[in-house]
Write a structure and sequence with these properties.
Blueprint lengths: L8 H23 L5 E7 L2 E7 L4 H8 L3 H14 L1 H12 L3 E9 L4 E8 L5 H4 L13
Antiparallel strand pairs: 1-2, 2-4, 3-4
Helix pairs in contact: 1-4
Length: about 140
């Protein structure tokens, strides 16, 4: 597959599944609990992973007692500390560099969203620009 074309549907599905699995494994390894569901989407150069059911017992306890900001702060700190590992999952699967990574959680329902912006690929077609064709009307 050349970098200027989308992967075939099956390869694309495998790539997205690889990202979902990798992100779930990172959460499981470092939080001690991973999301129960994960789905990754790719639109142009943007990868979005939606992870469901990933709050730990400690986080759930904090949320249930109104300490929502504590959970947000802990997750932000974790994402900053783990940014390179999260980027690597996506870069390995897509073969492209991640130029931006953002993460957020939602309390009810229990969701996390991981968003990655990929480095643009240069279109080979742009290098092979052909001059525009001008229509010439026949003389009357």
């Amino acid at each position: 597959m050349s970098p200027d074309r989308s992967p075939p549907v099956q390869a694309r599905g495998e790539m997205l599944a690889q990202i979902s699995t990798g992100l779930v494994q990172l959460h499981s390894r470092y939080y001690g609990k991973g999301p129960t569901k994960a789905k990754t989407h790719m639109v142009n150069g943007t990868v979005v992973s939606i992870l469901r059911g990933g709050f730990t017992t400690v986080e759930r306890t904090l949320l249930d007692t109104g300490k929502v900001e504590s959970v947000y702060q802990m997750r932000r700190s974790f994402q900053q500390a783990m940014e390179d590992e999260f980027r690597s999952v996506v870069e390995e699967a897509t073969g492209r560099n991640v130029i931006a990574y953002m993460s957020s959680i939602h309390v009810d329902p229990d969701l996390a969203v991981e968003l990655f912006v990929l480095e643009p690929v240069e279109e080979l077609a742009a290098a092979e620009v052909t001059p525009p064709v001008t229509a010439v009307e026949p003389a009357a």
